[in-house]
Amino acid sequence: MSMDIAQVLASCRRVNAGDLTLWIERRWIRPHHEGAGWSFTEVDVARIELICDLRHDMDLNDEAVPVVLSLLDTVHGLRRRLSLLAVAIARLPPDARAALAAELERGEDGEDTDA
Q: Between vectors from CA 51 to CA 77 and to CA 17, what angle results, nearest 5°?
């Protein structure tokens, strides 16, 4: 489901049109441009709410917000990659999974690895 800017502003009462436009210009929010306006996804709206939380509830300034957003984007990307890795490992033959588990245990025990 996508929303236009009026719907977003009605839904997210802590942001005004000027701030939202600025956030788009700063690329904190990346809605799709459709025709004469913007189209916001549920993810965009959640990110707008997050920025409102950061700026209003946590009192972060405009210099800190992109740093936090970048870190959160990195964490999200890593979680997605770990999920894909878990699926790939689950598809391995049992002996390969056992060998990988043993190698991971060896690394956790502080033993030197080749990597």
A: 125
How many degrees, rounded to 5, is the angle at CA 75 between CA 74 and CA 76? 90
Return the CA Rg of the chain.
21
- What type of residue sits at position 88? A
User: How large is the angle between the packed helices 42-52 and 64-90, nearest 10 degrees?
Assistant: 130
**Nearest CA-CA partner of 6 in 37, 30, 35, 31:** 37
Chain centroid to CA 85 = 18
Rounded distance between C-alpha atoms, residue 5 and residue 15, angstroms: 11
End-to-end CA distance of the chain: 44
**What's the pLDDT tens digit per position in 61-105?**
999 999 999 999 999 999 999 999 999 999 999 999 999 999 999
